[in-house]
């Protein structure tokens, strides 16, 4: 009976991880700038972008961000392993908070929500399961690096975007004379924008370790083997592709309609800046929020162009970002406490 329940739980976790990969694709807006600039036909852009995010997810599944989420955040006290109930609680908590945020119209980070949920579950596990010291429950060095990256990455995106625009304006854009030169230049930037967007999509997929982190956690506690992990990783990549093609098209088309007046050169600078930040974070195995980086890249461009910035809206958004981590931690901790009260741990 216990074996049947555990097998059912493993299947549920695998299905939820693959569904999470679909939602990652469905909420991705990276293609908006390229679609708005008319670089490719809409359906072709969806196929190319979906293939890029799926490829990034698969190619970097052997470690990096999935390993951070699925193992490296845990300390020696937990032997770097989650129980399946812990993984289920983390998924339910992070998804619940994201759904609440969506209905409330609050922009939230799935990365912050997931890491917050992990912290909440581990704290409750350490306190109420016994035999686990909070001092050894976490890999505090890794947790510190992850949280710091959430602040450093958006600010770095702002700075890089600002510098790149100033350099391009001084040494290239300012030398263009007449409408014909400007139009010819922007046509060239369309293809640079295409390259930057695909480059960014690959790294977005590589840094989206939420789904693969759950699968890696299952592999580490011997619920699945290496071959099964690879198989389900490929499934996640495919479903991320499907998420972009069937669901993200609505978000992308809506955002693209507001970016028609955005120059391809501006879109290129924003996308290449965000891609650089996400690439560095991925190689350092740090899960960050792509949307946060993009927002600050846009702010960096606005500052460089001396455009007005909605500081009130930015402050409101920042408040939601900061609150996501502790609220997700509390929600996950409370849910895990309830489950453990019924002998499920």
Plain-language structure description:
By secondary structure, the protein is an all-alpha fold. The chain has a domain at 2-73 and 139-307. Helix content is 79%, strand content 0%. The protein contains 14 helices and no strands. The chain has helices at residues 2-26, 32-36, 42-59, 64-72, 84-103, 110-129, 134-137, 140-171, 178-207, 210-220, 226-257, 264-283, 290-304, 311-341. Helix 1 packs parallel to helix 5 (84-103), helix 9 (178-207) packs parallel to helix 12 and helix 10 packs antiparallel against helix 11 (226-257). The longest helix is centred in the middle third of the chain and has 32 residues, at 140-171. The model has no long low-confidence stretch (mean pLDDT 88).
In short:
By secondary structure, the chain is an all-alpha fold.
Task: Based on the model shown, name its key terms.
79% helix, single chain, mainly alpha, elongated, 345 residues, 0% strand
Backbone structural class: mainly alpha
The major beta sheet can be summarized as:
none
Helicity level, as a percent range? over 70%
Distance between the termini: 16 Å
Low-confidence stretches are none
Mean pLDDT over the residues: 88
Number of helices: 14
What's the total count of β strands? Answer: 0
SS strand fraction: under 5%
Name the overall outline: elongated
Q: List the secondary-structure elements in sequence, H or E.
A: HHHHHHHHHHHHHH
Rg, please? 21 Å
List the helices and strands and how they pair.
Blueprint: H1 2-26, H2 32-36, H3 42-59, H4 64-72, H5 84-103, H6 110-129, H7 134-137, H8 140-171, H9 178-207, H10 210-220, H11 226-257, H12 264-283, H13 290-304, H14 311-341
């Amino acid at each position: 009976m216990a074996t049947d329940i555990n097998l059912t739980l493993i299947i549920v976790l695998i299905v939820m991880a693959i569904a999470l990969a679909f939602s990652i694709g469905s909420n991705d807006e990276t293609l908006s700038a390229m679609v708005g600039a008319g670089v490719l036909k809409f359906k072709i852009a969806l196929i190319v972008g979906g293939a890029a995010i799926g490829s990034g997810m698969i190619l970097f599944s052997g470690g990096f961000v999935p390993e951070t989420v699925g193992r490296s955040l845990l300390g020696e006290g937990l032997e770097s392993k989650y129980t399946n109930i812990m993984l289920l609680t983390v998924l339910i908590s992070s998804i619940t908070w994201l759904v609440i945020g969506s209905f409330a119209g609050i922009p939230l980070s799935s990365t912050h929500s997931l890491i917050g949920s992990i912290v909440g579950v581990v704290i409750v596990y350490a306190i109420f399961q016994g035999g686990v010291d909070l001092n050894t429950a976490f890999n505090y060095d890794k947790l510190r690096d992850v949280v710091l990256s959430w602040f450093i990455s958006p600010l770095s995106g702002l700075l890089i975007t600002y510098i790149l625009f100033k350099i391009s304006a001084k040494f290239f854009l300012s030398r263009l004379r007449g409408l014909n030169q400007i139009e010819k230049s922007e046509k060239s930037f369309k293809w640079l924008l295409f390259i930057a967007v695909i480059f960014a999509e690959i790294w977005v997929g590589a840094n989206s370790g939420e789904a693969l982190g759950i699968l890696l956690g299952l592999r580490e506690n011997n619920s699945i083997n290496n071959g099964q992990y690879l198989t389900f990783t490929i499934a996640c990549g495919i479903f991320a592709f499907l998420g972009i093609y069937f669901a993200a098209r609505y978000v992308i088309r809506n955002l693209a309609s507001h970016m028609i007046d955005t120059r391809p050169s501006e879109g290129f600078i924003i996308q290449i800046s965000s891609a650089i930040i996400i690439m560095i974070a991925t190689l350092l195995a740090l899960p960050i929020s792509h949307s946060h980086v993009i927002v600050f890249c846009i702010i960096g461009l606005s500052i460089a162009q001396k455009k007005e910035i909605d500081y009130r809206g930015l402050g409101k958004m920042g408040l939601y970002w900061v609150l996501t981590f502790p609220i997700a931690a509390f929600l996950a901790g409370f849910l895990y406490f309830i489950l453990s009260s019924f002998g499920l741990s």
